[in-house]
Amino acid sequence: MQPMQDKVIIRVSNSETVLASGLIMQSSVVNDTHLEGVVTAIGEGQVVNGKRLPMTVKVGDTVIFLEDNTVVIKVDNVPHYVIPEKDILAIK
User: Fold this and answer.
1) Which has the closest alpha carbon to 90: 7, 47, 30, 41?
2) Where are the domains of the chain?
3) DSSP 46-85
4) Which tens digits make up the pLDDT trace of 4-44?
5) Which of 10, 61, 89, 91 has the most neighbouring CB atoms within 10 Å?
């Protein structure tokens, strides 16, 4: 799957951590509005003033991103997030 322009497709890991209290916490959740995942595909970059801007992230990068403004799609029955690159907060 090839995202358009500055869009990024991210697979969020589903690994869980069991806390001493018995609570189960998904490791992908950084807090209520931020998620962590691995970039699986990137677009070619946004065109500004007739010039294509290069993407900062690359396939395989682990990123922290905003959950707002995401589109969830299923690839091989696994949820993936499609987001604009500007919503990525950090590359790990």
Assistant:
1) 30
2) 7-91
3) -EETTEEPPPS--TT-EEEEESTT-EEEEETTEEEEEEEG
4) 999 999 998 764 444 556 655 554 454 566 889 999 999 99
5) 10
Nearest partner of 9 among 56, 70, 52, 69, judged by Cα: 70
| Beta-bridge mates of residue 23 | none
Separation between Cα atoms, residue 10 and residue 30, nearest integer Å: 15
Let me know: does 63 contact 33? Beta carbons within 8 Å: no
CB atoms within 10 A of CB 33: 10
Fold topology of 7-91: 10 Kd Chaperonin, Protein Cpn10; Chain O (2.30.33)
